[in-house]
Design brief:
The chain has one domain (4-162): Muramoyl-pentapeptide Carboxypeptidase, domain 2 (2-Layer Sandwich). It contains seven helices and four strands. The two termini are 20 Å apart. The longest helix is centred in the first third of the chain and has 20 residues, at 4-23. α2 crosses α4 (105-117). The chain has helices at residues 4-23, 39-54, 68-77, 105-117, 142-147, 153-161, 164-169, and strands spanning 59-63, 91-96, 121-122, 133-135. 47% of the residues lie in helices and 9% in strands. With 170 residues, the protein is α+β, with helices and mostly antiparallel strands. The radius of gyration is 15 Å and the shape is globular. It has a four-stranded antiparallel beta sheet, with helices on one face. The model has no long low-confidence stretch (mean pLDDT 88). It binds zinc ion.
Length: 170
């Protein structure tokens, strides 16, 4: 089995390619491409979607990577944050395939519960609820993430999402 770093190096190159692909879309377009997520986070989102299905829900991945232009657009509309980590491939918005944003309270509860069980941060916990939103790291870790070199960000996220002994051994 390849080491964390070997895996990260290989997959970060893949990720950079998909982000370049997504970046070629028009500025305001919504990207729901799993490949545009950082590899460590992508694996968690895939598992989370499977768990939601197993819990009887019909999740739909609505948005993954977000262009800086779209961040600016959402900030102007008052529906997005300037500090969003979507442009870094470590956030995803998951809604209900049938009821979209009008999903049942159980859907949102399960999304929050299952994502937290995977070590993810759920927007449902925020003062300004962002029910569909999940991200790899807590808000308090965002500035440290941004200060981390690009090729080390996948491992940075792995530590946050992983078991506590991995985090504390770092
Ligand atoms: Zn989001």
């Amino acid at each position: 089995m390849p080491s964390l770093l070997q895996r990260a190096t290989r997959e970060v190159a893949l990720h950079a390619r998909s982000v370049r692909g997504a970046a070629e879309r028009p500025g305001g377009a919504i990207c729901d491409d799993l490949e545009a997520l950082l590899p460590s986070f992508r694996a968690e989102v895939e598992a989370l979607l499977e768990e939601m299905v197993a819990a009887g829900h019909e999740p739909r991945l609505f948005e993954t990577w977000r262009s800086p232009e779209r961040v600016a657009l959402l900030v102007r509309r008052g529906t997005g944050s300037i500090n969003s980590v979507h442009p870094h491939g470590i956030a995803a918005d998951i809604i209900c395939a049938r009821k979209l944003w009008n999903a049942s309270p159980l859907f949102w509860r399960d999304l929050c519960r299952l994502s937290e069980r995977r070590g993810l941060t759920a927007g449902a916990r925020w003062a300004r609820h962002d029910l569909p939103h999940v991200q790899a790291i807590p808000v308090v870790a965002q500035s440290a993430f941004l200060a981390t070199r690009e090729e080390e960000r996948d491992v940075f996220c792995l530590r946050w999402m992983g078991p506590l002994d991995v985090l504390l051994a770092a």
